[in-house]
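Dataset card, provenance and construction

Sequences and ligand SMILES were collected as paired inputs. For each pair, a complete structure of the chain with the small molecule in place was predicted and serialized as structure tokens. The example below shows a pair involving zinc ion. Curators did not alter the output after generation; any descriptive sentences attached to a record were derived from the structure itself.
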Amino acid sequence: MQSRDGGRGTSPACGGTSRVPGDRPDPTPDAARALSVSGYHGRPTPASLVVVHFDRRQRARRAAGGLAGFWGAMVVSVFIPIAHFVLVPSFFGMGIWQFVRRLRRAELVRGAHGTCPDCGAEQDFELAGGLRFPQAVQCRTCHRGLTLATREAA
Ligand SMILES: [Zn+2]
């Protein structure tokens, strides 16, 4: 006797594929922000922001790490004469401030990803100037200065 072990994947088709109205259309508006890289050739290439998402556990770990860093500095600054009157409460407050901030932060912009218009090297650009655009970046391959700017979605 042979029992055929056919992998019949009969999934019950539930016909209720409905989008929930009122659901957030784009939870990451910054991730969709289109950028462009322009170099000497005047032909800008598209780029996009690189956004890292944190789940609840990662957020808690980042928050605890930030708190430990500031409060570690606080403990050290206790031993600095006179300055500790300022440093200890400052580090204490900054630790709590960053703890709350990191606990709330679900995503972090790590940089931008794009292609160098001059040499064609695909790469991640570091955003030294934060999220202010346009800002100057440098190609890691040809080391030319490039400009990262927001691209209007036309
Ligand atoms: Zn380049």
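Derived descriptions for this record:
The chain has a mean pLDDT of 83.
The first helix runs from residue 56 to 77.
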